[in-house]
Structures are given as structure tokens and as C-alpha cells.
Amino acid sequence: MACTRSLARWLGALAIAALCVAPTAPLRAQDSDPLIARVNGIDVHQSDLAMAEDEIGSNMPSMGPAQKRDYLITYLADVILLSQAADQQKLGDDADVKRQLAFDRNKVLMEALLQKTGQAAQTDDALHKVYDNAIKQMKPEEEVHARHILVATEDEAKQIEAALKQGADFATLAKEKSKDPSGAANGGDLGWFTKDQMVPEFADAAFKLDKGQISDPVHTQFGWHIILVVDKRVKPIPTFDQVKPQLENYVAHRAQEELVENLRKTAKIERLDQPAASAPPSSSLNPAAPVKK
After folding, report:
1. Could you give the C-alpha distances from 140 to 5, 115, 197, 243, 249, in angstroms and in order?
2. Long-range contacts: 201-207, Cβ < 8 Å, 24+?
């Protein structure tokens, strides 16, 4: 898992300048989109419920599936009824409403295009090319699998060290003595980690030990540790399938960024709030990068 996170960080570094865009999940298919309700002649489909949940889901009270469905249908019915009432009052002719409608239309179209572009870029060849390039740049890195016991004082640590040298079980002592919650939960097992994932004093001590060795008391900002090295290895390379989601996100974001950059190059964008000689906006800024929640 540590190596998977390492490759994910590598991909994340490549994508720092990429757009923070709408998710690249497929657009909802209309083929299997059952009709749920009809409000004053307006059809409400299953996809409408899904969109409503995306819109208000975080504000919905906790409830069961049936109650949530009723809640969303009521919400959509209210939206339709109120919009029809607004139409009867000709609020659609209001200048502010027109601007908001135009903005919302542009935003929906933008998100749809970015989503389509991201999906189209996620070919098997593109994903494997990014994966292969990332793997080539990964340097061999040592990992340690260790357990530890954390106590408040050096004297306590020395007592535990002496007990271990007399044959006491490390995991049992960790459950009984360690201040670290992992002690009670799993006998102080920290799993596999690289040197940069631990505080320097702990990492230096752990990586100097051989497999099966127990450290002298080690002091860190958290207290005093006794460390047992369970095993050591060179960090394994993650498989393609393990990092496929990160690859898909990176490839999609890269394609979306290229689309926006190309459109900016051919567009006529006039800044009427600044003198004509002013520099154009930096391409590293992404003010129109939507995040669909």
C-alpha cells in the first residue's frame, strides 16, 4: 500500500497544474430511466431524482431509502410548481433571472464537455503509457515492517526492553503497556513504512535494525519507544490495476486542461476593466474549473 501511495503522489505531482474539474463518471444513460412521477404534466424520471440528490443530498435529514425517495420527489415537485408559478408571473423576463439562467446553461454545457473530453482520453493505451512512465521514474526504496511499544518514560522503556530480552511476547506487552492506540488494537503493529513516513529519530533507529532485532529505548516527541523490526524489503512496484483510478483521473484532467488551453489560445478575450496593454490572465489559473459536488 505504501508503494501505491508513492505512485499516487507521483501522479498527483504531475497533475498539480491540471484542472480541478467535474467528475469523469459516465453521463446518466437515458435508456433505463424510468418515469417516477408527473407534476402538472411535467415528467419526473429516476435521473431527475439522482440530480436532486446531488444538489441537496448534504442538507437532507437522515432517513431510510423509502423516505429519502419521497423527500426527493416532493422536492422536485416543489421545484416544478414554483418554477411554473414564476413563469406565470413572467419572472423569466427579469434581467437578473436571465443572467442567472444564461450562467447556469453555460456551466452545465461546460461540465458536460469537460466530462466527455475526460472520458474520451481514458483509453487503455493512454493509461498504460502514463503508468509505464511513472514506473520508470520510481527509484528502489527500502521499507520496514515494525512493531513498537510507546511509554512515557525511559525507565518504563528499559523495563520493557529487559522483559523482552527475557522472552516476553512483544505483542502482548504492547497491548498491556503501550500508550499508542495501535498497541491495544494490534499489538503495536505499524505495518510497512518508508523512512520518510516516520519521525526522524524513530526512522533512523528502525532502519538500522536487522530483521528480528529489538531496539534500545528511542526518544521522540511522542515519548519513549521500543521497536521490533518484523521484516525488511525493497518496496514493491504497484500493479496497473492498483493505481488505475489515479491513472484515469490524471489522464482525464490532462485532456481537460489541454482542451481549455487550446480554446484560450484561439479565443478573443477582452479585459474591459484594464488598459489594453495589460498582460493576459495567467494560464496557470483555472477560474472556470468546476467541481461537481
Report:
1. 15, 36, 16, 18, 25
2. 202/148, 202/227, 206/144, 206/146, 207/142, 207/144
Domain limits, the chain: 2-134, 142-234
Q: Residue 50: CA atoms inside 13 Å, Cβ hemisphere, count?
A: 10
Which are the contacts of 130, defined by CB distance < 8 A and separation ≥ 6? Answer: 11, 247, 250, 251
CATH topology of domain 142-234: Chitinase A; domain 3 (3.10.50)
| Model pLDDT for residues 96-126, shown as the tens digit of each residue | 999 999 999 999 999 999 999 999 999 999 9
Please give the DSSP secondary-structure letter assigned to residue 57. Answer: G
Q: Is-contact 148 180, C-beta < 8 A?
A: yes
Q: What are phi and psi of 23, to 5 degrees?
A: -55, 155
Answer for the pair 203, 229: CB distance below 8 angstroms, yes or no. no
Grid cell in block for residue 206: 528502525
What pLDDT, on a 0 to 100 scale, did the predictor assign at position 168? 96
Give per-residue burial for 256-291: e unless 16+ CB within 10 Å, then b.
bbebbeeeeeeeeeeeeeeeeeeeeeeeeebeebbe
Cβ atoms < 10 Å from Cβ of 131: 21
Is the per-residue pLDDT at 197 higher than 60?
yes
CA 172 to CA 3: how far, in whole Å? 30
Residue whose C-alpha cell reads 516527541 in the numeric block: 221
